[in-house]
């Protein structure tokens, strides 16, 4: 039996998974019961009791339903690929098995780190990155980035954000810069954030939504200074002072080297606020919505995305993703794809894009890394 009293569960992923949505409410209810049993099973994530596979008859007794009904619901779940079956015919949750493998890898990494003894003692309890010792106890930048395909959020520190971001792009590919924060003590600010997400991170990569990560950054024990200075325009008087802002970000999501003006910061915040609300209302998860918005911003810029979002909201379209994509791709003075038939090539391209966005949400209702 598992010694863990709980497992992570993300309602948006549960409600937006296409396989589960095709199942009846009764089949979905059976699946959550099965997940609870698999959480206590050995091996973890497999539908077993006392090491023995559970068949429909035993499962029916455990959940208090009739065998015919349980067989019918299992058939629904199988037809919609909600669960998998191993070589011995045992039902298992792909996500739960994967989570267990990740936990084991993290535990092994922690044990390996302990072998370094005193070398990790100074920073081990605080968290953070011991290789950046020269940056600790100094003011600088705390940054948060995410791959443009979504997934975990990296929180780190640097004195030179643009060089750091360029280095990250070479390592992990295109990234979305979620924010850079001025902090008085880089070591303690980074360590406070990492310590909060212990058990939900792999190194500096945190498995959480951006709203939660940003809230922790802003309310951590060693919070940001809360001021990001931008040079005043040349036409400003010498007495003019830059406007403070708690967050700064690159001019566009693909990572231009020029820091934005405060108005760009406000525009970016407005884009994500209105865009996430609009797309979530249409059935996308928070992570899927943010990923789509990041891709649109990268390809078309903030102003065009904001205009397209406003148009979609004004039109009240039931399919804002297709509406916004078509509006962004429509050249000025030409009809967009709503005004002309879509050919097979265009249909396949849109299907590929949708698969990229939907990839990563598991039928377990658990967010995929």
TrEMBL record:
<feature type="region of interest" description="Disordered">
    <location>
        <begin position="326"/>
        <end position="369"/>
    </location>
</feature>
<dbReference type="InterPro" id="IPR018306">
    <property type="entry name" value="Phage_T5_Orf172_DNA-bd"/>
</dbReference>
<feature type="compositionally biased region" description="Low complexity">
    <location>
        <begin position="233"/>
        <end position="249"/>
    </location>
</feature>
<protein>
    <recommendedName>
        <fullName>Bacteriophage T5 Orf172 DNA-binding domain-containing protein</fullName>
    </recommendedName>
</protein>
<feature type="domain" description="Bacteriophage T5 Orf172 DNA-binding">
    <location>
        <begin position="147"/>
        <end position="217"/>
    </location>
</feature>
<feature type="compositionally biased region" description="Basic and acidic residues">
    <location>
        <begin position="336"/>
        <end position="355"/>
    </location>
</feature>
<feature type="region of interest" description="Disordered">
    <location>
        <begin position="221"/>
        <end position="262"/>
    </location>
</feature>
<dbReference type="Pfam" id="PF10544">
    <property type="entry name" value="T5orf172"/>
</dbReference>
């Amino acid at each position: 039996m598992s010694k863990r009293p709980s497992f992570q569960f993300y309602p948006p992923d549960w409600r937006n998974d296409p396989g589960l949505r095709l199942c009846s409410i009764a089949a979905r209810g059976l699946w959550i019961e099965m997940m609870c049993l698999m959480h206590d099973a050995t091996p973890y994530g497999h539908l077993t009791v006392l090491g023995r596979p559970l068949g429909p008859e035993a499962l029916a007794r455990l959940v208090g339903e009739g065998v015919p009904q349980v067989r019918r619901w299992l058939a629904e779940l199988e037809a919609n690929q909600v669960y998998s079956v191993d070589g011995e015919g045992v039902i298992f949750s792909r996500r739960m098995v994967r989570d267990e493998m990740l936990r084991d890898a993290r535990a092994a990494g922690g044990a390996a780190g302990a072998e370094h003894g005193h070398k990790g003692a100074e920073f081990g309890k605080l968290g953070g990155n011991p290789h950046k010792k020269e940056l600790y106890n100094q003011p600088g930048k705390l940054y948060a980035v995410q791959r443009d395909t979504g997934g975990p959020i990296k929180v780190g520190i640097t004195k030179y954000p643009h060089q750091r971001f360029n280095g990250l792009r070479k390592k992990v590919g295109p990234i979305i810069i979620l924010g850079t924060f001025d902090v008085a003590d880089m070591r303690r600010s980074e360590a406070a954030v990492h310590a909060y997400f212990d058990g939900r991170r792999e190194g500096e990569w945190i498995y959480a939504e951006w709203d939660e990560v940003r809230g922790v950054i802003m309310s951590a024990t060693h919070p940001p200074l809360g001021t990001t200075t931008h040079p005043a325009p040349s036409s400003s008087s010498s007495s003019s002072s830059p406007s403070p802002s708690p967050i700064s970000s690159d001019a566009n999501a693909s990572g231009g080297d020029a820091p934005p003006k405060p108005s760009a910061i406000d525009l970016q915040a407005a884009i994500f606020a209105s865009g996430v609300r609009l797309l979530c209302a249409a059935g996308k998860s928070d992570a899927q919505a943010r990923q789509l918005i990041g891709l649109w911003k990268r390809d078309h810029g903030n102003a065009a995305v904001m205009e397209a979002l406003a148009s979609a909201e004004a039109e009240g379209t039931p399919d804002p993703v297709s509406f916004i994509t078509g509006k962004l791709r429509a050249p000025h003075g030409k009809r967009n794809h709503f005004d002309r038939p879509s050919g097979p090539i265009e249909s396949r391209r849109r299907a590929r894009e949708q698969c990229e966005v939907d990839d990563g949400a598991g039928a377990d209702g658990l967010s995929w890394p």
